[in-house]
Specification:
- This is Acetyl-CoA C-acyltransferase.
- It comes from Gordonia mangrovi.
- Helices cover 35% and strands 19% of the residues.
- The chain is built from 13 helices and twelve strands.
- Strands 1, 2, 3, 4, 5 and 8 form a six-stranded mixed sheet that branches. A four-stranded mixed sheet has the order 9-12-11-10, with helices on both faces.
- It is globular, with a radius of gyration of 20 Å.
Length: 392
Amino acid sequence: MARAVIVDAIRTPMGKGKPGGALADVHPVDLLAQVLSGLVERSGIDPGIVDDILIGCVGQNLEQSATPGRQAALAAGFPVHVPSTTIERKCGSGQQAIDFAVQGIEAGAYDIVIAGGVESMSRVRMGSARGDADPFGPGVTERFGPMVSQGVAAELVADKWKIARESLDSYAARSHARAAAARERGGFAREILPITTPNGVVDTDESIRLGTTADKLAGLPAVFGTDANRERFADVDWKVTAGNSSQITDGAAALLIMSEEKAAQLSLTPRARVVASAVVGDDPLLMLTAPIPATHKVLARAGLSPHQIAAFEVNEAFASVPLAWQHELGIDDERLNPVGGAIALGHPLGASGARIMTSLIHHLEATGGRHGLQTMCEAGGMANATIVESLV
C-alpha cells in the first residue's frame, strides 16, 4: 500500500463574510484559483501531473455552483485535463477532502492530489441553497421530533454539560488572544498566501479582534432564545452569543498530497502524513457532540493515547463544542486550539477543515510537536477526526 504524505499546505487570510469584508470583492472561484496557483508555485511541480482536485464547499449554489475546484483550476491556468470534484460534509467538507485524498493515494488510485476547500460567505449566503425548503422529511421528524438550528444545539450542549456563560465568554476571549499572539510572533506568516483583490493585497486575518475580553463579551445578548425556542426548551438558560460563536468568513485553503514515492521522485520533502482518520454520527438534535466519539475512534485506530498528542484542534463552531469535548477527554488548556480557532479566525464552512489542518501542521513544525489531532462537528450530528504526524 502506498503511503500518502503532505508536501505543503497554505490558506488565504480570513476575511469577514459580509459586504465590505477584505475578500468580499473576490469571486470564490478566483479566490481558490490564487490558492491553487500559490500551492503549485511553492512546490515547483507541473500542475499537469495533478491527478485530481478535491474541494470541500457547503454552499454549492450561485457563484459556487459549477464545481468550484474545476473552475478554479481553469482560472489558475492548470491544463484542461486536470479534473476536480466537490465534497460536502457540512463543516467537515474540507477535512473530508483531505481524508479522501489520502485514502485515494493509499488505494493506488492517485499519485498526486490537491485537497482543500473554499467558501465565500459574503457572496453565497449560508443556507441560501436550502431556501425555505424542509430538508428533513417526515421520517426524520417522526423519529427525532423537529430539528433545531446549530445555535440551539449549541445551547443544548452548554446546558447538558452545565457550561456557564462566563466560561463560554472566557473561552472566546482566549481564542482571540491566542490567535493575536500567534500572528504577532509570525506564526501564520508561512501558511498565509497573500490574496490580490480589487482593493489591494490582503495578507493578514481580518477576523482577529484585538483587546477582546470576557467582560466585553458578557454584554452581548443571547441570540437563539426566541419565544418558540424558550417554549420548547423551557429549562435552558440561553447564553450563546455572536461573541462566543464562530465568525461568518470568506476563505480558502489547499494541501498538496502525494505518495511518498512520488515525492521522492520529485525531490520534494514531506512535511506531514495522516496517521488515521475516522468519521462518526451522533445525536442529530444535540448535533455538535460527535467530535467526542470521533476522537475516541481515531485515537484507537492510530493506537495512540491523548497524552501522545501535542495539539488538539476542535473546531470552535461555538465555544460550548470544545468545552464539552474537553470535559469528556480531560485535555489540558495548553494543547486545545493553541493558536485560536474559528471564534477568532472564522469559519468559512467548506474551507475550515483544510484551514485548520494547515494551521495545525505549521504549529507542530514551529513547536517541535509530533502528533496533532483535528476534529470538527457537522450539521446533522456528524464529525470527522484526523490524526496527523509532523515529519519535519
